[in-house]
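Q: Given only this backbone (213 positions), what sequence would you predict?
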């Protein structure tokens, strides 16, 4: 897990108008809450934050927020990011305070590895990822950046279920059903070829009828 440090300033006023003004000034409104400390309304640099938001590890790491005008530092997880409906730009971020030993529930990305070399894909099968993220329970200082699922040995029609996934030490996934996380689906080329062949037969038949007329 990677640690990140963000410099922040306290926000004296809130509201939509103030938030728009801050964004025009290159600042992103945010809030820190949770724990035994009061909620803090803050601003962070938009350009610096955009670089962090592009990193997958940022969402599963403890972030240290150094807020000017506030005593001490705040260690937190990214709880929510609100995005602009048109531009690829964060317009507000929620940070939730945690300590390293806190047990947390997080959505962690699933990565399929060795898919290109598995027998099913080599034979033309298609990798279909059913669950792109998995909800895990673990300590705040042990959140995996992602969970790797190996496709080694999978044939066309094979699937991997949650009980087949090897989890890092200390990481749990609560589940009542052994749900599917990915599958190697049969190629759809044959079906398309059959449809094209049927269309050609229908066209030929229509041409033949036209010649008779």
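A: Predicted residues:
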């Amino acid at each position: 897990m990677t640690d990140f440090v963000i410099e922040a300033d306290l926000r004296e006023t809130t509201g939509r108008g103030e938030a728009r003004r801050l964004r025009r000034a290159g600042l992103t409104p945010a809030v820190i809450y949770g724990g035994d400390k009061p909620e803090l309304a803050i601003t962070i640099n938009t350009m610096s934050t955009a670089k962090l938001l592009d990193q997958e590890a940022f969402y599963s790491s403890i972030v240290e927020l150094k807020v000017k005008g506030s005593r001490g530092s705040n260690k937190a997880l990214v709880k929510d990011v609100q995005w602009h409906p048109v531009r690829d730009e964060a317009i507000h971020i929620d940070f939730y305070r945690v300590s390293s030993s806190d047990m947390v529930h997080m959505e962690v990305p699933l990565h399929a590895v060795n898919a290109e070399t598995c027998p099913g894909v080599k034979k033309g099968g298609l990798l279909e990822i059913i669950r792109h993220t998995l909800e895990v329970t673990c300590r705040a200082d042990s959140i995996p950046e992602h969970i790797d699922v190996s496709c080694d040995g999978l044939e066309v029609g094979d699937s991997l279920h949650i009980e087949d996934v090897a989890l890092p030490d200390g990481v749990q996934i609560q589940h009542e059903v052994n749900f599917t996380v990915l599958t190697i689906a049969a190629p759809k080329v044959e079906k398309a070829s059959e449809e094209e062949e049927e269309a050609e037969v229908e066209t030929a038949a229509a041409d033949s009828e036209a010649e008779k007329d």
